[in-house]
Design goal:
About 35% of the residues lie in helices and about 25% in strands. The protein is globular. The strands form 2 sheets. Strands 1-2-5-4-3-6 form a 6-stranded antiparallel beta barrel. The protein has a two-stranded antiparallel ribbon with strand order 7-8. The chain is built from 5 helices and 8 strands. With about 220 residues, the chain is α+β, with helices and mostly antiparallel strands. Strand 4 and strand 5 (about 80-85) form a beta hairpin. It has 2 domains: about 25-110; about 115-210, no CATH class.
Length: about 220
């Protein structure tokens, strides 16, 4: 279970997809990319077997990766074709076509493990609340707040990993602490609202910030 996608991290910190460190999983790399409308193609790639999925991030560049551009992947249409878009504020908004181009260098990078780890922590807290409220985890409904909370938690882990052996004033430490604080702040504001009779009104509301995990 993942409560957010790479595109949610991209909304907050595009730099983690353009940097050249090894923290993220680089799923596919190539130099024959072409963009036409919202279609990205690479004859030499196999996006399906590489594990590329909707919600991940495609980076394209001419010569320097750090000066490239990032696009959200809307769908994997075949082994060689993706549907992409300029990053949208609303996931339900229509796709926005990037500038056309050919002979593009590119890669797909994902922070899936970090997202999954944070999602698992939040899922356990939700499970504890759900048991008290008498509902099943399958009844959970996604929310923007939950996605943002998860994204900050994942980014805290990403920047902490990037700051390994860095000096205390390194910007990565500062970023890691910022996102950790945001993760806790957003988590304290999360509410589990239970609509028992399906009338659109919550009969029960519980605060996620009041649940703490304890190792036993």
């Amino acid at each position: 279970m993942s409560f957010c996608q790479d595109r949610d991290l991209l909304c907050i910190e595009p730099i983690v997809y353009l940097s050249g460190d090894a923290v993220g999983r680089q799923l596919v790399v190539g130099g024959d990319g072409a963009i036409g409308g919202t279609t990205f193609t690479s004859a030499g790639s196999d996006f399906v077997s590489s594990g590329v999925e909707a919600g991940m991030v495609l980076c394209t560049y001419d010569t320097i990766p750090a000066e490239g551009r990032v696009w959200e992947i809307l769908s994997v249409d075949s082994a060689t074709t993706l549907t992409i878009s300029v990053l949208r504020v609303d996931v339900d908004a229509p796709p926005v076509a990037p500038p056309a181009g050919t002979g593009l260098s590119f890669y797909v990078r994902s922070f899936g493990p970090q997202i999954h780890s944070v999602s698992a922590t939040l899922a356990e807290k939700l499970r504890q609340l759900a048991e008290v409220a008498g509902i099943a985890s399958a009844d959970f409904a996604d929310s923007v707040q939950l996605r943002v909370t998860t994204a900050h938690g994942a980014l805290a882990g990403v920047f902490l990993a990037r700051a390994d052996n860095a000096r205390p004033h390194d910007a990565n430490w500062i970023k890691a602490e910022f996102h950790r604080a945001e993760f806790l702040r957003c988590q304290d504001q999360l509410r589990l609202a239970v609509d028992v009779d399906g009338d659109g009104l919550a009969e029960q509301t519980r605060t996620l910030g009041n649940v703490y995990l304890k190792r036993v």
